[in-house]
Amino acid sequence: MTYKQIKWMILFIPTITVGIWEYVRHQFLLPYISMDLGNWLTPVLVYFVSVTFLNRLFHMLEKIQQELQAERAVKVALEAREQLAKELHDGIAQSVFLLSVKVDRLEFDSDQAKYDEEVFQIRKTVREVNRYVRQAIANLRYAATPETLTLRRETLSEKVKQVAEEVLVPIEVEWSIPDELLTPKEKVELLASIREAVVNIQKHAQASKGWIKGEPAANRPGWSVVIQDNGIGFKSDPDQLGDSYGLLIMQERAKEMNWGFRISSEKGYTVVELQNL
User: Fold this and answer.
1) CA count, 13 A, side-chain hemisphere, 120
2) Quick check: 31 and 66 in contact, CB under 8 A?
3) Do 148 and 173 belong to one domain?
4) One domain, residues 170 and 138
5) CA nearest to 142, candidates 91, 90, 185, 179
């Protein structure tokens, strides 16, 4: 029995039952059953029909609903796996293949300058692979399924604070950007950029303190994020990133997302700023 047939039967069975009962009562049972008794017997008969027939139909309806939900969950899981496979192929698999080619070339390269350049490119590719992995995992976490919608998700502010706690340098976080201002992809990319900047503070800045400030734009629907530290800053022009592959990846990521990217040394502080355009 189909879902539509069950719904129509639930609607019509009580109506048809009452109609047949009233016809039989008035045509054949009126000499034996008084009007008051017949009026009392009508809801009893409807209740009896509901308990016997409608209750079974409701169980059938619930079973069909459960089967539909199970099929929907399987479909969502398959779509998520397909998306993950696509991202693994497009990003990670190709990058790993590129790494293997570059490593093979290093074995036969005697030019030190070219050797250093290849090592730099390998490090950069490794960072890209790490980025693809994080993005693929995050995309699965943000998949909207009936099950995951009921679970509590961490806000971006909480995730930023977790990133700040991953390093030994004290990082002060001031965050007022509503999650609704960013898409899931923007959250992933922004969090990855913040993590990159925080790691750089610990590894290269020799700083005693850092700050992360995220706030919505004043006159337009946008936002701005500033990562700042009191470290040694840049020994050269900050616009020439050179072999700072972490900052290069941040710059490329900002370009892909159509964000503004700025890095500077100001009054003894190094400032990295990201903002949507």
Assistant:
1) 15
2) no
3) no
4) no
5) 185
